[in-house]
Amino acid sequence: LLEAKSPCMYVGPEAWTSGGGKDCVELAELLGIPSMRTSNDCWVDCFPTSHPLFINAEYTPNLRFPRGVDVLLVLGHFMPRPGSAKAIHVTTERSEISKGSAAELPIAADPRLTVRDLIAAIKSMATTQRLAALAKPRVEEVRTFNASMEESLRAVAQAAWNNSPISWPRL
Hints:
alpha/beta, six-stranded parallel beta sheet, 6 strands
């Protein structure tokens, strides 16, 4: 993760149920990792949807953003097809590890404890300045992407704003 050029974090319900939500946010902020939920029908927002590093998308190898993902960290959910990305798959469900797609690094463990260990390892391997230098441009890229998506959604909503019956986006 520390050497990744374009990492992405895919956070699932096991991360939330293990109590690792705050730890996932800390890891994302530490390295400026764009983070997404596992699916639109997930029963819980596993990564805070209001967080600046949250991307409202599901991971696919042809993502519009972030492009060229080289390391995919999957925490507490099934493994999506990683494409050319090296995948780190963390889950307590041993039968789910690499079930649909192979992971470069499969880890059968509690997502919260694993994330805490990753944070400690990363902090021990890099200076605060290096971590800030990695995170800052990534955070800015996510902010820019999210702003453009918000503008696109606003434009679509305004096109049907005065429809009758009232449009869903207006609600």
